Every structure is written in C-alpha cells, then in structure tokens.
Amino acid sequence: MPAGVTAATQVPPNPWGDRRRRSVGLLGGSFNPAHAGHRHVAETALTRLGLDEVWLLVSPQNPLKPVAGMASLAERMASAQGIAGRQRRIRATAIEQSLGTRYTADTLSALRRRFPRSRFVWLMGADNLLQVSRWQRWPDIFRAAPVAILARGPYSQRALAAKAARRFARYRIAAGPARGLAGRRPPVWVFLHTRLHPASATAIRAARHY
Where are the beta strands (DSSP E) in the chain? Predict the structure, then answer.
C-alpha cells in the first residue's frame, strides 16, 4: 500500500444497500495483488463511460482460480485499497462476502436488489471476454447490466471473435456513445480501445518469489 494511504481512506459501499442514485462500474477480480493496471481500468471507465464511481469487487475466491497461491481476502482488500489511494470515486469492497454470492450473475442480481436506484456497468478486460463463456450462467451477466470491455494486451482481436462476442454481437454499440452506457437497457455492450497497461498480477507474484 502506498505511503500515507490507509484503509480508513476508503469507505466501502454499505453491504445492506442504499437508495442513492448513481452510475457505478463494477470491476471484479481476485486482485492477487491489485496493481496499477487495475487503477488504469477504473480511471478509464470513470472518464470514458461518465461513471460516478467504480467499485473494485475483491472476490473471496474466484471459482476458476486455484486456492493455492491466493493471498488472504484481507491482504487482497488492502492491496485494492492501496491502488485506489485517495481517489474517492474508486472504492474497494469485499461485498460479495457479505452478499454470500460466488458467481458474477448472482452478485449482479443481489446488487440490483440492494441498490435499486444505482445503475451498474460490468467492467472487464478483453482477456475475460475471451473466456467469460466458462462462467456460471454467463448470458445472465449481459442481460443484467450493460458491459464495457477494455482492450488488454494481445487478447483484443481474439476476444472479439469469442463465443460471448458472437452471441451478443447485435447488442454491441460504438465507442462514441459509451458515456451513456449506464443508462441503456441491457443487453448492451461496448469495446473500448484504450491505451494498454503492462501491469500483471502474475508477473508481480513471480517477481516476489524470484
């Protein structure tokens, strides 16, 4: 965690919900650890999509990732709080633990019930678009909230030819009107060609053990 930044800097969303009206980008992941690339995605989403906030949803345990090598939830939360820093529009949260949800489709459903006036956008990198069809009830994710895909490394072209992109091809919109994405009725998604960021959690972990 950067010097001078403490967990108290960040105020996570109330797990019991509220009735505030706002547009929120949801960036889920293990954050093992969180890094500058995650912050880049969050800041890009705030700017390009015109969002009020981005929540970093730190997963208690990603069903598709092994437990071995996974840092504790507390450590990963501290990592996410650290990269959010003093940017109060980026909020780290382990709300899935409070919701008792394991899969993204269930998380979105629970969040829509607890935050009925919030407009959510699901955020993910092109690498996840490539393999989202392996996720539990993945079509429900596209039907529950608008989705924004951000370019990442060598995955972008392959991702746009992947199963999910083909299945929902007619619901893709151009990047130009993306600022209004949160207010659109799903299914709807956009692919944002953005400056690529080189940070990688895998590389960071490998360097720590070198």
Answer: 22-29, 53-58, 90-93, 118-125, 147-150, 172-173, 189-192
- Write the pLDDT tens digit of every residue in 22-44: 999 999 999 999 999 899 999 99
Q: How far is CA 55 from CA 65, 66, 163, in A?
A: 21, 24, 27
CA atoms within 13 A on the CB side of 149: 29
The ranges assigned to domains in the chain are 20-208
Instruction: Answer with the residue of higher pLDDT: 149 or 64.
Output: 149
Bridge-partner residues for 51, per DSSP? none
CATH class of 20-208: alpha beta
Query: Phi, psi (5° rounding) for residue 86?
Result: -100, 15
Amino acid at 77: M
Residue type, 79: S
- Give the type of residue at 102: R
- Per the DSSP assignment, residues forming a β-bridge with 8 are none
